[in-house]
Design brief:
4-stranded antiparallel β-sheet; 2 domains; Aspartate Aminotransferase, domain 1; 7-stranded mixed β-sheet; alpha/beta; globular; 14 helices
Length: 418
């Protein structure tokens, strides 16, 4: 690696995915100058195809009205099925295990209805200490819903004192102490704050060893790491699609339920008519006849405009090839890390793991004596990054639309500010 603009431009010229940058709309400032956008971990950029895909659905709605459910170019009745196979590839699952539906936290609650079944002797949930707040709120409310107290039933997996990253051996110790009382392990991958990727396979095996259910929140992982959900075999996972999957603000989430649960109609669930047998769904007089697989957790008919935006992005992922995306991601984030370490400034420190296998594309830059001023100055300098209290600037070069020159320019502007 070299710390030069020429090197960055050479890497971009030789990048096999370079054409995909032009498939996205890149933000500019008020004068029309391009911004350095490193915030795909919060909201991905808009694919140019999205407007076309949305317009097609608007046109079909105008042309067909209700008949669009069957007669639209992409009929609305089975619309979610157009997304399933491509989504399954990105999370390493079988199509029967994946469905796009609802929002992330709604899906998390639906999963806990089925996979958190506390008893007097086994009622505890383990989450990482710095879990995304929505996850913590959802878990606490589920514990309370079942008549337990989070102070007794919620266990936090936390880093050693004075450190930022969780250690698997500490999770093992928690399970050795509490394992027989733990009903659910629910971990976020990757961690929103530190960027740490937790070992999905090892966590799943540990939880199942103690007869606990295991689930993952992949909000900051999907489209960013390969979780290999089928082979790693957690019971469930949930995610959003508006970060690395570029589906637009507040777009629908995704859900994985492992194949081993696919044909168990006796699992407790909150049911809705879209989880009912497709052959008799519109015969309103039938008792609930649950669909096999993840589709059986659906509640309502598809939100077509949101799914059209998701389809636009998944088509790009499919064309690029997810293995190719991950390969570039490791190289791009590795170069960002190299450039940041060349600064040698005592006021900043990367807390994200150095091992590329233990992170996605995000690097979390901890700022000494933080008061958000450094982040504010970066924004004023044309860099879109993300601030998280109390002291971290998150930067995430997304391999589909970010370049090595983006990364170089960001670090040069950061050096100038420092």
């Amino acid at each position: 690696m070299k710390n030069t603009l020429q090197y960055a431009k050479e890497q971009d010229q030789n990048d096999p995915l370079k054409k995909f940058r032009d498939k996205f709309l890149l933000p500019t400032d008020k004068q029309g100058a391009p911004l350095i956008y490193l915030c795909g971990n919060s909201l991905g950029l808009q694919p140019k195809k999205t407007k076309q895909y949305l317009q097609e659905e608007m046109d079909d709605w105008a042309k067909y009205g209700v008949e669009g459910h069957t007669d639209a170019r992409h009929p609305w009745l089975p619309y979610h099925e157009f997304l399933t196979e491509k989504m399954a590839k990105i999370v390493g699952a079988k199509p029967i295990e994946v469905v796009i539906m609802n929002s992330l936290t709604t899906n998390l609650h639906l999963m806990m209805v089925s996979f958190y079944q506390p008893t007097v002797s086994k009622h505890k949930i383990i989450i990482e200490k710095d879990a995304f707040p929505s996850d913590k709120y959802a878990v606490e409310s589920q514990i309370q819903f079942h008549g337990y107290n989070p102070e007794d039933s919620l266990i936090l997996w936390e880093p050693p004192k004075g450190e930022e990253l969780c250690r698997f051996k500490d999770l093992e110790k928690l399970m050795q102490i509490h394992g027989n009382e733990v009903a659910l392990l629910l971990i976020g991958n990757t961690n929103y704050y530190s960027g740490q990727l937790y070992p999905i396979k090892e966590i799943t095996e540990l939880g199942h060893l103690y007869n606990a259910k295991v689930g993952f929140d992949l909000a900051h992982g999907v489209g960013n790491i390969q979780p290999n959900l089928h082979d790693n075999a957690p019971d469930f996972a949930v995610w959003c699609t508006y970060k690395y999957l570029n589906s637009g603000p507040g777009s629908l989430g995704g859900c994985f339920v492992h194949e081993k649960h696919a044909n168990n109609p006796n699992l407790k669930r909150f049911a809705g008519w879209w989880g009912h047998n497709k052959q008799t769904r519109f015969n309103m007089r039938h008792n609930f006849d649950v669909l096999p697989g993840a589709e059986g957790w659906q509640l309502s008919n598809p939100a077509i405009l949101s799914m059209a935006a998701i389809r636009a992005s998944l088509d790009i992922f499919d064309e690029a090839g997810f293995d190719n995306i991950l390969k570039k991601s490791k190289k791009l984030t590795g170069h960002l890390e190299y450039l940041l370490t060349q600064i040698k400034n005592q006021n900043i420190n990367i807390i994200t793991p150095k091992n590329p296998e233990e992170r996605g594309c995000q690097l979390s830059i901890q700022v000494k004596n933080a008061d958000k001023s450094l982040h504010t100055k970066l924004t004023q300098a044309g860099v879109i990054s993300d601030w998280r209290e109390p002291d971290v600037i998150r930067v995430a070069p997304a391999p589909l639309y970010n370049s090595f020159e983006d990364v170089f320019t960001f670090v040069e502007r950061l050096k100038h500010i420092l």
